[in-house]
Write a structure and sequence with these properties.
There is one protein chain. By secondary structure, this protein is mostly helical. The protein has a domain at 6-106. It is built from seven helices and no strands. The longest helix has 27 residues, at 111-137. The protein is elongated and about 80 Å long.
Length: 149
Amino acid sequence: MTRYSPERKETVLKKLLPPHSLTVSEVASREGISVGSLYNWRSQARAEGKPVPGPNKTSDEWSGEAKFAVVVETAVLSEAELSQYCREKGLYPEQVKAWKQDCLEGFNSNPERQRETAKQSRADKKQIRQLEKVFWSNGTGHFYERQYS
Protein backbone atom coordinates (compact mmCIF):
# COMPACT_ATOMS: atom_id res chain seq x y z
CA MET A 1 0.00 0.00 0.00
CA THR A 2 1.38 3.38 -1.02
CA ARG A 3 1.79 6.03 1.67
CA TYR A 4 1.25 9.67 0.81
CA SER A 5 2.58 12.65 2.73
CA PRO A 6 0.09 15.09 4.28
CA GLU A 7 1.35 17.75 1.86
CA ARG A 8 0.61 15.51 -1.12
CA LYS A 9 -2.87 14.73 0.19
CA GLU A 10 -3.57 18.45 0.69
CA THR A 11 -2.36 19.28 -2.82
CA VAL A 12 -4.53 16.58 -4.33
CA LEU A 13 -7.60 17.61 -2.30
CA LYS A 14 -7.19 21.22 -3.47
CA LYS A 15 -7.96 20.02 -6.99
CA LEU A 16 -11.48 19.20 -5.81
CA LEU A 17 -11.98 22.86 -4.88
CA PRO A 18 -12.49 25.81 -7.21
CA PRO A 19 -11.03 27.03 -9.47
CA HIS A 20 -10.28 23.44 -10.60
CA SER A 21 -13.48 21.85 -9.24
CA LEU A 22 -12.54 18.43 -10.57
CA THR A 23 -14.54 15.37 -9.64
CA VAL A 24 -13.06 12.68 -7.44
CA SER A 25 -12.88 10.36 -10.46
CA GLU A 26 -11.02 12.94 -12.56
CA VAL A 27 -8.50 13.63 -9.79
CA ALA A 28 -8.03 9.90 -9.19
CA SER A 29 -7.24 9.18 -12.84
CA ARG A 30 -4.96 12.21 -13.25
CA GLU A 31 -3.02 11.56 -10.04
CA GLY A 32 -2.98 7.75 -10.18
CA ILE A 33 -4.66 7.47 -6.78
CA SER A 34 -7.61 5.20 -6.07
CA VAL A 35 -11.07 6.73 -5.87
CA GLY A 36 -11.55 5.09 -2.47
CA SER A 37 -8.43 6.77 -1.11
CA LEU A 38 -9.62 10.17 -2.28
CA TYR A 39 -13.04 9.72 -0.69
CA ASN A 40 -11.31 8.63 2.51
CA TRP A 41 -8.98 11.65 2.47
CA ARG A 42 -11.92 13.96 1.82
CA SER A 43 -13.85 12.47 4.76
CA GLN A 44 -10.83 12.79 7.04
CA ALA A 45 -10.30 16.42 6.00
CA ARG A 46 -13.97 17.19 6.62
CA ALA A 47 -13.76 15.52 10.06
CA GLU A 48 -10.79 17.78 10.86
CA GLY A 49 -12.96 20.81 10.02
CA LYS A 50 -11.29 21.63 6.73
CA PRO A 51 -13.53 23.00 4.00
CA VAL A 52 -13.77 20.36 1.31
CA PRO A 53 -16.59 19.85 -1.12
CA GLY A 54 -19.16 17.17 -0.60
CA PRO A 55 -21.28 15.75 -3.37
CA ASN A 56 -22.44 19.29 -4.19
CA LYS A 57 -20.17 21.20 -6.54
CA THR A 58 -21.04 24.84 -5.86
CA SER A 59 -20.00 26.56 -2.66
CA ASP A 60 -23.56 27.73 -1.97
CA GLU A 61 -24.57 24.07 -1.79
CA TRP A 62 -21.83 23.17 0.72
CA SER A 63 -22.89 21.66 4.01
CA GLY A 64 -23.32 23.85 7.06
CA GLU A 65 -20.22 22.24 8.56
CA ALA A 66 -18.09 23.18 5.56
CA LYS A 67 -19.38 26.76 5.58
CA PHE A 68 -18.76 27.02 9.33
CA ALA A 69 -15.22 25.68 8.81
CA VAL A 70 -14.58 28.47 6.29
CA VAL A 71 -15.94 31.08 8.74
CA VAL A 72 -13.68 29.78 11.51
CA GLU A 73 -10.66 29.55 9.20
CA THR A 74 -11.11 33.12 7.97
CA ALA A 75 -12.11 34.77 11.26
CA VAL A 76 -8.68 36.26 11.93
CA LEU A 77 -7.78 37.19 8.36
CA SER A 78 -7.42 40.77 7.19
CA GLU A 79 -9.45 41.96 4.20
CA ALA A 80 -6.50 41.32 1.84
CA GLU A 81 -5.87 37.87 3.33
CA LEU A 82 -9.56 37.03 3.07
CA SER A 83 -9.54 38.01 -0.60
CA GLN A 84 -6.50 35.81 -1.22
CA TYR A 85 -8.13 32.90 0.66
CA CYS A 86 -11.31 33.30 -1.37
CA ARG A 87 -9.39 33.34 -4.67
CA GLU A 88 -7.67 30.08 -3.69
CA LYS A 89 -10.96 28.41 -2.69
CA GLY A 90 -13.06 29.84 -5.50
CA LEU A 91 -15.24 31.81 -3.11
CA TYR A 92 -16.31 35.41 -2.84
CA PRO A 93 -15.61 37.46 0.30
CA GLU A 94 -19.31 38.38 0.33
CA GLN A 95 -20.21 34.69 0.63
CA VAL A 96 -17.93 34.24 3.62
CA LYS A 97 -19.34 37.38 5.27
CA ALA A 98 -22.90 36.14 4.68
CA TRP A 99 -22.02 32.73 6.16
CA LYS A 100 -20.50 34.48 9.19
CA GLN A 101 -23.69 36.49 9.63
CA ASP A 102 -25.75 33.29 9.38
CA CYS A 103 -23.61 31.73 12.10
CA LEU A 104 -24.03 34.76 14.36
CA GLU A 105 -27.79 34.81 13.82
CA GLY A 106 -27.89 31.22 14.94
CA PHE A 107 -26.55 32.33 18.32
CA ASN A 108 -28.99 35.18 18.68
CA SER A 109 -32.44 34.39 19.98
CA ASN A 110 -35.36 34.66 17.66
CA PRO A 111 -38.10 36.91 19.17
CA GLU A 112 -40.85 34.78 17.67
CA ARG A 113 -39.29 31.66 19.17
CA GLN A 114 -39.06 33.42 22.55
CA ARG A 115 -42.77 34.33 22.42
CA GLU A 116 -43.69 30.78 21.50
CA THR A 117 -41.57 29.38 24.34
CA ALA A 118 -43.12 31.81 26.84
CA LYS A 119 -46.62 30.88 25.65
CA GLN A 120 -45.86 27.18 26.03
CA SER A 121 -44.38 27.80 29.48
CA ARG A 122 -47.57 29.59 30.63
CA ALA A 123 -49.71 26.73 29.30
CA ASP A 124 -47.52 24.18 31.08
CA LYS A 125 -47.75 26.08 34.39
CA LYS A 126 -51.53 26.31 34.05
CA GLN A 127 -51.78 22.57 33.48
CA ILE A 128 -49.54 21.88 36.49
CA ARG A 129 -51.78 24.06 38.71
CA GLN A 130 -54.86 22.18 37.47
CA LEU A 131 -53.25 18.83 38.16
CA GLU A 132 -52.17 19.94 41.63
CA LYS A 133 -55.75 20.99 42.41
CA VAL A 134 -57.03 17.58 41.31
CA PHE A 135 -54.33 15.85 43.32
CA TRP A 136 -55.10 17.66 46.54
CA SER A 137 -58.86 18.00 46.06
CA ASN A 138 -59.62 14.38 46.94
CA GLY A 139 -58.43 15.07 50.47
CA THR A 140 -56.09 12.12 50.77
CA GLY A 141 -53.18 13.56 48.88
CA HIS A 142 -53.34 10.57 46.55
CA PHE A 143 -53.57 11.15 42.88
CA TYR A 144 -56.65 9.89 41.12
CA GLU A 145 -57.51 9.98 37.45
CA ARG A 146 -59.97 12.53 36.21
CA GLN A 147 -61.10 13.25 32.69
CA TYR A 148 -60.45 16.70 31.20
CA SER A 149 -62.28 18.04 28.23
